[in-house]
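Much of our argument rests on the idea that a fold can be written as discrete symbols. The record that follows shows the chain in one-letter code together with its fold in token form.
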Amino acid sequence: MASCRDVEGWHIISQLRELDFTLCFEEGVILTSLLALLLLSATCRIWALRYLPSRDISRKSRWRLWAKLTLLGLAIVASCFNLFVVLSLKQTASVVWPHVLEPLALLASWILTRLNHRRTRSSSTILLLFWPCYTVGLAIWTRSFTQDEISKGLFVVLSKWAVELFSFPAYVLECVSPDDSVNDNTESPVVTANVYSIWSFAWLTPLMQKGSKEFITENDLPALLPRDESENLGNDLQSALDKHSSVWLALFLSYGGPYMGAAFLKLLQDSLAFLQPQLLRWLLAYISNYQSTKGAANILVGPSPLEGYIVAIIMFVTSMAQSVVLHQYFQICFETGMRVRAGLVTAIYKKSLVLSSDERGSRASGDIVNLMSVDATRLQDLCTYGLIAISGPFQVTLAFVSLYNLLGWSAFVGVAIMIFSVPLNTTIARMLKKMQEQQMKNRDKRTRLMSELLANIKSIKLYAWEYAFIRRVLHVRNDLELKMLKKIGIATALNTTLFGGIPLIVAFSSFATASVFSSRPLTADVIFPAISLFMLLQFPLAMFSQVTSNIIEALVSVKRLSGFLHAEELQQNALVKAQKESLNVGDEVLSIKGGEFQWNKQDISAALEDVNLTVHKGELVGVLGRVGSGKSSLLSAIIGDMRKTEGEVALFGNVAYAAQNPWILSATVRDNILFSHEYDEVFYDLVIEACALKPDLELLSQGDLTEVGEKGMQMVSQLSGGQRARVGLARAIYARADLVLLDDVLAAVDSHVARHVFDHVIGPQGLLATKARILVTNSISYLKYFDQLVYLRRGIILESGSYNELMSNSDSEVRKLVHGHAASGSSSGMATPGRSSGMATPTTSDGDGEMQATLVGELESVSEKVSRKGSFKKSRPRCTAQAARRLFRCEQGRVKMEVYSQYLHAASRKGFLFFVLATVLQQAVSVMSTVMLKLWGEHNRETGANAGLTDKYFLGYGFFILVAISLNACAALLIWVFCSLRSSKYLHDSMLHSVMRAPLSFFETTPSGRILNLFSRDTYVVDQILARVIQNLIRTSTGCASIILVIGFSFPPFLIAVVPLAWFYSRITTYYLATSRELKRLDAVSRSPIFAWFSESLAGLSTIRAYDQQSVFIANNARRIDRNQVCYLPSIAVNRWLAIRLEFVGGVILFVAAVLAVSAVVTSDVDAGLVGLVLSYALNTTGSLNWFVRSASEVEQNVVSVERIVHYAKDLEHEAPYEIPEDKPASEWPTAGEVEFREYSARYRPGLDLVLKDISMTIKPREKIGICGRTGAGKSSLLLALFRIIEPASGTIFIDKVDITKLGLHDLRSAISIVPQSPDLFEGTLRENIDPAGEHQDVDIWTALEHAHLKAYIESLPGGLDAPVQEAGSSLSAGQRQLLCFARALLRKVRAFVLVDSTSAVDLDTDRAIQEIIRGPIFRDVTILTIAHRLNTIMESDRVLVLDAGKIAEFDTPKELLENKGSMFRSMAMEAGLVQVQLDDAEENPQV
């Protein structure tokens, strides 16, 4: 060991000087350690910086660098002079090492400063931490050194402080970042922040300043660090999951590194927290000693007054260090939680894109959305507080070690009670786990119901099924979910009481034992440090219950996530894709050999068997077959959606797919068509023209830039079924794929439009002429143009070949089909001449010939374009950096008091008042118990012994503890069981009723993801989070109030300090709330698009996969998650920013209280008991203030959920009343079925143009009316008017002389029936789908099914009417779904009936059978309105109504209209190729 030249040697504490270290300890240990540490760490850092490239720095930054280097150079010179002085005057230094090390350490810091400034963008942490520590060490050494003979070492002291003098400005300059470029939010400010800025969260201050002056927007928020971007987080998790099957292990390996650092910080913070009671004990012991020696004249030397102040300073420093460590720990935990959620959401999204058909069938969209919204969030919550599982036991251990030092073995009575409480905790935890698992199932069930309800809302409104569906949802909500919530509430209240009460019982039992068995009197310096330890024990135990519940929830969630992430994926070898550099006409594009496919593993028979199909480039292949024969399944097999059990599928090139039910993205029409490909204006216009979309786009407010979607910003009814089909088709053309799959795309469009689309797109002269095309069709109109026809029956290709081959075979099914339907006039274009010659074929008149010539001319121009372009080059994917952003409701400013008032109203004001009263009384009783302890300690000190259990003060303490625990139990039960349950029921039910009462336009302009988020996430907040945060807020606010009152009452001068502190506190809280509120709102607003995008993607999985767009959709999802994280990170950091400042206030309160106590002891006679009482409360200030603000902000942040729910419950526009008692129609109404429109006009929404204009007509009873018109003519609007989905702007409608505008909507809608164009089915049984309201007998249902040609099929199903229907009816074909809707309408037996192209998805045989039913005896006395896209379905109507631009153009019998050469109906029939056939029929049957 180095020699020590001081007389005191190597002792630590000096015997010669009061309250001081020895010089050898100061020089040889303190200063030497600091310098050695600097030298070592600076050398390591210099070594690391050598490998970094130099940066260009600004002139200003260069000047700063030179100033720092010059100052440090001068400091090195001063240090060398100091070394020279020490070596020449050997007696002046006790230890020579610090003087030798100093110049070396300064030289290392000079090099480090230069390299750090040129090669990094933030200040050197090593230097910023070294200089303050070295300055304190030097100050302590100077005090000791100068107490001896000063003249000896004057040069040494001066040279030491000269070093400090030059280094201090260099240190100040080092605090400024080397990078002085302006931060424009394109990167995170953390990149350039120094260590103090990170510790104090000062990097957020500019945002806080902005937030206090104006509303924060997304553009004001800093960017993410690259490591926090969801793409990187998702890749980390995916690579870990590929190596390890355990989700826990994968999450730990991906994100666990910083979390382990947080665990270390938490343990350090715990140690600092338990240091405070030891310091309190030191201070109280000092006060006792000081008091006992104060009056003893000069006999005893008392402790120095300085000692008390030093303890106060140490308490303050410890308090601040604790705050810094705690908030770094919290920040890391929240960041880890965010990474876990982002990684999981990315993984869930990627997985959902590759789920097998088995798994997709067994998992509803709502369930998968729940994995993302609830389960991923639960794991995020676990990261926040999960480390308390490690920290809790550590704190308990520290507490008992400290308590043993205070109370001896008596403390272990408390340990025994603690151990006894563990099994109790385990039992409650097990109960809670079971309840939470059940509650998750209940929530899933309700979310799934709501998801279906929103998806099928149009049918629900048209059929007046609102009450039936409300009953279904409320059954799950009230009978299952809320009953379980009540049990969870009771268990949680029990938990809260138990873990609030156990530390009190432990303290009481330990004191009781000590007072009986300990010979040493229990005085203030034992009691109050012990009470502080017991209070510190309260937090880990109280949190332990929450963490246990979090861990339980997380275990349930991980089990669900693991099941999903390891679920079966699509068969990789279902098809073999091979890219050829160039495909020429005639090259093979698709080859299926001996293919056998099934949807589910457990299916007994295959859905498709022995499929052999080869398709070449330039070929048009038609797929025919009856409903349910496997036509759509064949396309699914080609895109790889089905399970291949035998054979092989080879695909050369890429695929485009237009589904039968077109999937429309919530984006612009243009984006829907481009589908992430680059915009090529010439080809795009060509596609629009070919798909006949030009006139449709002109009707939309912003043309092809109008937002549309499944439940988009634009009303979906303005995109009719035909328009949606053509947008889907346009998407398929624009992709310029080698193989184009078209699933019955012509069924939903008007017949003349179908002809246009076939000629310009699909046919031999169409845009796709050079591509391989497979068209599923039920129409026989275009069969002659097909190169190959495939006829399916029950999943087997019954026959295939060219049109001529099959027609020449007398046994051919295709021949039978064509001959069976050609005669009936069902052909839609049979008489149209071939277009190959390019010549006009006059048919009836010159005018018609002109029309034909124009059409052929158009075709020739398209044909030229096709030949000019050759085979269109494949479109290139477009990389858009801009994510499609939706507008979500986002109020700015404070949450209005009205929202709190409405929540209290929902929760019961009286109940809430009793809860607050119970909490306040509990706090008051708790203070009384502490006062009893103070009196007990003083009594023991005076008597010099413990009075045992008979002491009145001690018994008073026990009584107050018992009352406090009872009041705590009452408060918990009141908030959890009484208030929370009532508010949950009231808010959910009123929102549900309000949403169901909203008009259809609301659902069509509001993304369903947003509404679903309200019913899942926001309802969960009201159910289980809000009660907890309100309970915490009231508890912590009463706690803070009691602390201020106790200290102020004991030391009135403290109240002087309270005034500025309270001002600072309130200012900073207000400053914070303005920013925090907006950040939390932005977080909530940016979270909804993630769910909306996810729900939307799940609906279009087949389309995404077919176009091979998974990577584009994953990137879009990543952008939405990143947008949310940009909002989430500041909303978390802002809490830390506030808390660290408020805990500084808490530290000042502790410091002021300690200094006042020491001053009072020195200047007057204050007993240790009072000081102990005051400081034990002051010690809790830091934690209490922090928890108070966190609780307040949590309440405000979570009450935003109530704000949103209340907005939906109170502010939504409602439809007309369901029932008007005074205007109730007769029970048999309508009896005749007469419908009269009187000067009727209507618009979709105020401010929009009229869609129906001055409609006046009368439809006689039992009349069959066909309604037609070109796209946008108002056909669908007429139907919506009849059901009052849209209300009249003027005029009215009468049914059987009753004005329908005077009726309740239920009375009206249940009296007429409809078969809508898009068949909506629900998850459940077939019976529930046909008769959701449960109003009909099974006999009636079977009759309806028989008429709808479904009886045989349903009888063949296991379970019959109770056979399950999957979500959206995915277990049935499109045709079967439409027939089921037909059966649904048949069941109602009404007099007025509307058909909306209800047979567009069925085969011709079924179509003919349905037409016969409609014209048969069942419907003889029923008025029927048929809205038709295929004109042949209305040719036998009594009259035909032709609409044009919302007005009646023609209204007469089909015969009259066809004979009128100027009629619109005739021209449409000619376009569809029906005129010749109909006129021939008319000649044969002159008398109809």
Remarks:
- The CA atoms of residues 555 and 811 lie 64 Å apart.
- The chain is about 60% helix and 10% strand.
- The first strand starts at residue 576 and ends at 578.
- The mean pLDDT is 81.
